[in-house]
Specification:
Elements: E1 2-9, E2 12-19, H1 31-50, E3 55-59, E4 66-71, H2 77-96, E5 101-103
Helix pairs in contact: 1-2
């Protein structure tokens, strides 16, 4: 199961962490893993290229799947929009694939 957790400072999203593997299919054909990966990687790329936010990124795919992203400039509207969009997308996936993704 992938566990996604969003970090907050007050009412603003300050980052997210993803841990684990979905296990909904064989390696290379796991649609839940692919969807979560696409959304999270696109969010990181968008934050880096479309905002002037500084990101602290920690990742470790080899030991169980791990991505942790913290954003310093949480007051930017674009940062909040991108992080809220990621949250919405993950919640939509979790609603259909409850056994494979949990969002908190």
């Amino acid at each position: 199961m992938i566990k996604a957790a969003f970090k907050y400072q007050g009412q603003k999203i300050s980052g997210f962490a993803l841990r684990g593997h979905a296990g909904s299919g064989i390696y290379g054909e796991d649609i839940v893993c692919a969807a979560v990966s696409a959304l999270s990687i696109n969010t990181v790329n968008s934050l880096q290229q479309l905002t002037n936010a500084h990101l602290e990124i920690q990742q470790d795919e080899a030991n169980g799947g791990y991505l942790d992203v913290t954003v310093a400039e949480i007051d930017q509207d674009a940062v909040q929009l991108l992080l809220a969009s990621l949250r919405l997308g993950l919640l939509d996936i979790a609603a259909t694939y409850k056994k494979y993704l949990k969002v908190s």
